Amino acid sequence: MPLEIQLPGQTAQSTGRVVGIDLGTTNSLVAFVENGIAKIIEGRGDERSSSKLVPSVVTLDDYGSVVAVGNKAKERSTQDAQHTVYSVKRLMGKSYQDVKKEAGLLTYRLVPADEGLVRVQIGKKLYTPIELSSYVLVELKKRAEAFFNEPVTRAVITVPAYFNDAQRHATKDAGRLAGLDVLRIISEPTAAALAYGLDKTKEGIVAVYDLGGGTFDISILKITNGIFEVLSTNGDTYLGGDDIDRRLMELFITQIKYMTPTFDPTPEQMQKIRQIAEKAKIDLSTQSRVMIEIDLPEAGVSYRRNLTLQEFERVAKTVIERTRKPCEDAIRDAKIDVIDIDEVVLVGGATRMPMVKALVHEIFQRKPHDELNPDETVALGAAIQANILAGETKDILLLDVTPLSLGIETMGGMMSTIIPRNSTIPTKVTETYTTFVDNQTGVEVNVFQGERDFVKDNRHLASFTLKGIPPLPAGAAKVEVTFLIDADGILQVKARETHTGIEQQVEVKPSYGLSEEEIDRMLKESIENASTDIAGRRLVEAKTEAQRILAATEKVLGQLRRGQLPVTAAKLKGINVADVIDALYALRRAVNGDDPAEIAKQQSLLERATEPLAREIMNAAVAEALEGKTVEQV
Ligand code: AMP
């Protein structure tokens, strides 16, 4: 079920400035282009809000009012953890099921909703991640409006390359809720490549390694004469600098408990320790040792220790190393060798860590670009894209790819893939299907996402029924199914019956999306189960087709017996009915077995026996169904 969203009364105007927004897990930024140069918009007012980053943190009271957003909310998080929400991007477009194992690690409360998106509970009120993200967007919008001294109603917002349809939708909805007309959702690595001006490269392959607070993305882009094409993407929306903070926090808590066994940290104390851990991590990007001091007099805790870079790197290594395999998979999916990569770009605050730079250098066998501030790169690229859409720059085309295959269910519960995974988008693909039963006047179109051969193993996205098909013999009606993915990665499905031109379409808007684990699991299963899937698919396909032919033949034999066939006696002469009956029984026996080769063999024997008759009947029936209509009407 699509999520209902209450939109603010005013609608966005379609003129004025367009800003670029990096809506991050940890921090968000807003940027614009002035005289051809992309710049981050800084906050004004009190000293704290003068920085470029707006922490993606919101504090709400028990009655549903926003108390603080950004730096002020981040500060409050230690005193008021249960009212302060961070890392909401991890929840975007997800169900409670998708994120329930995260629940224990967050200091605020997640609750299941009957259907659709997970909810965050603050006091007695429940919020969707979309609403919570919109508060951060409102803050960025206000920041831009204060800077320009005029309303800002249009934006480009970036999302991780791995975000699926539901997650992109959720982000777009958050923008609308904040009063922004979201002109385009673009992938963060694509924005990063734009920020580095790599569109000027005549031809080359670029890897964008993005390790932020909460997500890791690796993308391989191909640039040809200023055109970006994402060859492959991979990553993990549950991997980032936050995980290192959490590891350090756990280390400190374990050591504190060793000295003070009764220590049972409250959410506020956890938050404070988390911030100390993060600061230590950041300081260790430029220092070789730091002093850790955790004072919690109320709990009788006074913890002090030295943390060396070497010790820290031992803790961080297991997290950082998890980025290696997605990089290797992305290179493989792009069908290139590592030596084909011309440039490597670093994005995300966590890439400031020397050990991350070293790992990237090792994996890609070349020194990565780190000239730009890795926190700002994506927002700067979003601003460049915003400028393109505002009509200021016209010569850059952005292309992206789909993370999983999209298709529809066909007979026997099979998945018929229409757009394969890693296809470049925007894209439009049409496939033609036919009816299975005589006089079928409706076709149900069930849309699925995934790599497995049977739809039951894939993810259901949407269903609709195409009605009003003229009653025709099975196989005579032709239904064209078109999948269109727009530049935001949003899917539209259209079905059209070609004789009558009737059509039906849906925008696929699932109530929640796939978790990264699900995407990984589905890809892994598709590889592991490839051989059983193929055998199963072949058998189901053979049985489905044979049953269709059996039903059609039996019907015809019945009509023949009753003298009801719309075919003249002269045309029936060449047909030996006993042969047809023998072949029919042989095929029925084969269908009850499980040998697809035998089914195929018996089917072709039956087809050979009935072919002249079938042709005559089909011709007569189509002529009858369309009788009295002009060519234009059909
Ligand atoms: P982002 O999501 O790109 O804003 O990245 C935020 C993450 O980068 C957080 O986990 C920060 O703790 C981390 N980070 C920011 N600066 C540094 C630094 N100098 N060294 C290590 N990590 C950093």
3D architecture notes:
The chain is an alpha+beta fold and 634 residues long. Helices cover 36% and strands 26% of the residues. Strands 1, 2, 3, 4, 11 and 12 form a 6-stranded mixed β-sheet that branches. Strand 16 (289-296) and strand 17 (301-308) form a beta hairpin. Helix 3 (129-148) crosses helix 4 and helix 15 crosses helix 16 (596-625). 44% of the residues are buried. The protein binds adenosine monophosphate (AMP).
Short description:
With 634 residues, this protein is α+β, with helices and mostly antiparallel strands. The site of adenosine monophosphate has 19 residues, from α6 and α7.
List the main descriptive attributes of the protein structure presented here:
634 residues, elongated, binds adenosine monophosphate, six-stranded mixed beta sheet, alpha+beta, single chain, five-stranded mixed beta sheet
How are the SSEs placed, and which strands pair?
Blueprint: E1 18-23, E2 27-34, E3 37-40, E4 54-55, E5 58-60, E6 66-69, H1 71-76, E7 84-85, H2 96-99, E8 109-111, E9 119-122, E10 125-127, H3 129-148, E11 154-159, H4 165-177, E12 181-187, H5 188-195, E13 203-211, E14 216-224, E15 227-236, H6 241-259, H7 267-283, E16 289-296, E17 301-308, H8 309-321, H9 324-333, E18 343-347, H10 354-364, H11 377-389, E19 397-398, E20 400-401, E21 406-410, E22 414-419, E23 424-425, E24 427-434, E25 442-449, E26 459-467, E27 478-485, E28 491-497, E29 503-507, H12 516-528, H13 530-561, H14 569-572, H15 577-592, H16 596-625
Parallel strand pairs: 1-11, 11-12, 13-18, 15-19
Antiparallel strand pairs: 1-2, 2-3, 2-4, 5-6, 5-7, 8-9, 9-10, 13-14, 14-15, 16-17, 20-23, 21-22, 21-25, 24-27, 25-26, 27-28, 28-29
Helix pairs in contact: 3-4, 5-11, 6-7, 6-8, 13-15, 13-16, 15-16
The protein binds adenosine monophosphate.
Adenosine monophosphate (AMP) binds at residues 24-27, 212-213, 240-242, 278, 281-282, 285, 348-350, 352-353, 375.
